Amino acid sequence: MEKPNKNMTRRDFLNQVGRLGGAVAVFGAMDTLGLFGTPTYAMKSDFNLPKKGDLPNGKNGKTIIILGAGIAGLCAAYEMSKVGYNCKILEARDRVGGRNWTVRPGTTETEIGGVSQTAQFARGEYFNAGPARIPQHHITMDYCRELGVPLEIFTNTNEHAYYYRENVGALANTKIRKQMIKADIRGQVSELLAKAVNQSALDSELSAEDKERILTYLRGEGGLNANYQYTGSSARGYDIFPAAGLEPGKVGDPYTLNQLLASGMPNSISGEYSFNQQPNMFQPVGGMDAIPKAFEEQLPGKITFGAEVKEIRQSPDGVKILYTGKGKGNGAGSGNLREITGDYCICTIPLPVLTKIPADFSSEMQRAIGSISYATTGKIGLQYKRRFWEEDERVYGGMTTTNLDINQIWYPSSGYGTQKGTVVGYYNFGNDAVALGDMSIAQRQAHALAQGVKIHGANYKKELEAGFSLAWHKIEYSEGGWANYSASQRQNEYVTLNKPDGRIHLAGEHLSYMTGWMSGAIESALIAVGTIHEEVMKSPSVAS
Amino acid sequence: MEKPNKNMTRRDFLNQVGRLGGAVAVFGAMDTLGLFGTPTYAMKSDFNLPKKGDLPNGKNGKTIIILGAGIAGLCAAYEMSKVGYNCKILEARDRVGGRNWTVRPGTTETEIGGVSQTAQFARGEYFNAGPARIPQHHITMDYCRELGVPLEIFTNTNEHAYYYRENVGALANTKIRKQMIKADIRGQVSELLAKAVNQSALDSELSAEDKERILTYLRGEGGLNANYQYTGSSARGYDIFPAAGLEPGKVGDPYTLNQLLASGMPNSISGEYSFNQQPNMFQPVGGMDAIPKAFEEQLPGKITFGAEVKEIRQSPDGVKILYTGKGKGNGAGSGNLREITGDYCICTIPLPVLTKIPADFSSEMQRAIGSISYATTGKIGLQYKRRFWEEDERVYGGMTTTNLDINQIWYPSSGYGTQKGTVVGYYNFGNDAVALGDMSIAQRQAHALAQGVKIHGANYKKELEAGFSLAWHKIEYSEGGWANYSASQRQNEYVTLNKPDGRIHLAGEHLSYMTGWMSGAIESALIAVGTIHEEVMKSPSVAS
Fold first, then answer.
1. Integer CA distances (angstroms), B526 to A242, A244, B99, B223, B515, in order
2. Do B242 and A498 touch (CB under 8 A)?
3. Per the confidence metrics, is the pTM higher than 0.90?
4. What UniProt keywords apply to this chain's record, in alphabetical order (chains A, B) (predicted)?
5. Contacts of A185 in chain B (CB under 8 A)
């Protein structure tokens, strides 16, 4: 694999992002594409990041005030501190990570509205309340490597997990292993297409040679017999399993095309191949918060916790932030209004929170900030005393896909074969998330259990030990899962949000086309870092 | 999930395996199937295993001589020792596991023919020369749970790994990410079928309602546009990736149906869904030999290493085994012929080895043993100083599928994001395995590297640190990968091999319909255990 051609990527950069007038991510490695047909994805090395020595002896290092110690803020501070910038992070919470939040034994949260709970999980049990999976092509992988965060597979797909759809078609109210639905729809659809091909219905589309070839493909892909009929295939699993001794096994009868189509289940399959969901995906060993914690270790003394931003001010010469402390953390007083000043500000505060903070933004920027709605989304972690899904049902990892308001059930991607395990009992969006979020903590859990019992039977309720639920739109300092842009907002408000506003640069997942992903936050932070650094380098005070 | 109905499984047992006249695996849990449409697979609890207390005070415990400390022999000894049988294992090698063999720093092997090598791997690097993956539905998972063997995901599928086919069609000699081929063939085939449906070519097959439904399915599955055309989809990956800032990304142009069919690549897809290959698959953390080692820990003093079986004798009253020691292990003399006697023998020696040992088998059994050929198969482990496949190419785990004689390249399923990594540079079969096996160690490695360079470029050679190759058909005491039965042999010789021959019971993967899998060895061992125990229980000396 050759390294990307730097001239090409620079040209792409100039063509694509000249509008921003800043130092922005450079993508493509188009020569690689040309050579292999396989782009190598965005990499850290594709960004125009400051290098050690850019700031002579560090003496011209400016002070950068970073609002928020989520992934974007931490990453910006990490890269800028490396080369000598004086970075100061204000963080409202008592922890790093922001929406990257791993709920562990003793985790306490009071939601907006006053609903409060403490996780009663057993030692070692946890669930990732925010981001929970990393596609292998995301730049997040580069930071895990650089920071030494150990990774393991996140099992986004598991053929042995189930589809379950309530009150839809002939297969309603029955959990069916994904392998069965996939094998059967592929088989039935392959049989159908083979029929059309063999009846010469597609002769205008296919050469004689391609007719033969597509029939060969369909026979393999669909598991068709020599007459191009689908009568079931081992890919769907067996009714009687091939065994030792004299048992060769027996494949079950397939579902009919009509049953499959009426069930709607096959329509869920393609989601598992989508660009950001296909294998392999990863998670840090022991919890997603290993990533912010690894950044934090690199930033000793630079983070002020419990610092709630009250005003964001700027002049042509610098920025000034007013904040209150909570009597915790590094230098924040208890409730007194404090002031911090710097040369630039990188503001990663989510827009629904930022819009309520008095700030010296242009009116265009202020309007843009106030116009973007955030996703409603919720999750529940359910700790079980026994992994019945593994032991009794042979479902090791992955997720069950339903049309219930719980949407999905996630089985843990670690600790396979051990005793306890923590399932994500719902991960839902939109109105479902609002409805469950409006319930009491006890009601949410009771509801999640009642839905899960439909799939897993009584064990789902009986073997529960502890639960912890949250509604992201009700979590203080976040107020939503991620930015939701309309197509029109992408053309207008989004462009405004991406422009530096004087000395203030916004960063976060909301400044990306990868909203809701840590990679969006990271890449956006790297753009802010690069843009500020470019400006600093151009300023006369640095010339020596 | 209800427990299997014991009456039903007993009926199945009687119906299916009465021919054997022994205590045999009971499968199906048919009530579960009836209830959910989802069989729960073979489980340890489905076998009629001896229970503690079956042998009163252990005083009637018979002596069981077990030949071979591979998975079958270890499992049989483990289950029988639990209830008071006196188990003695003779093992020709200096280690447990048999074909379950993890090559580590310092591993030395001299193949039949005299080729010799020692693994120069770095500390912590290894590869599994034999079995390397466990499907989640195999009974092997139950033993990992019971023995406390930690498991992690084996990445059998990875959409970012490649297809590579030499000299075939328009896409020849180009590595192409699997995601691209899969998305494009699904897209093109979906477009084709949608065309047939829309042209009413399949009206006799589909109701009006199902026509609408199948079009909806094809649009999603194929990533078709509103006109049912495939113009590429994000599932295939991007030419320019969606990024932070103002880059929404750009999907590349798809390959044509003709290109895809001519390449032959789509014909490789269905293998990834096959029953024993689909996600999720597992491996023990740190090497597959964790499984035999965990059994070994449960069998202190019961294994004689370096004991090469020379004769297998039996009478109506018992069995007698003659063997030579190698001056190592527990009680074996150095080269002197030794004798051990017992009540029963469980013989797990692979048939190509067993056929050469003088034994008191019936002539029918002796003929059957000599008639079964074993798979030729080979592997090479290649240790690299840097994981360029991860770092440069964003391939984290999984395997590249080729039409070269190396067949496959496996990327490591652990240590993601770390420095060094050990790739399996070939895993091949049949004539390819014979040809590479006939080379010198140096030639094998040079050949594997030359082939891999075609896919990964110069790094594949440049960054290599150490290699270790093997040809299973040339490994002493194994002489092949697994039993290969013809359909006719399954009807004849296989039935003979499954019958106890006097006091000798064969066990191993070759006594199963899961040849080559550890689950076949385990289930076969459990059948031998159950059959012997049933006979012992019926014998007058046990009645008290």
1. 15, 9, 19, 48, 15
2. no
3. yes
4. Membrane, Transmembrane, Transmembrane helix
5. 217
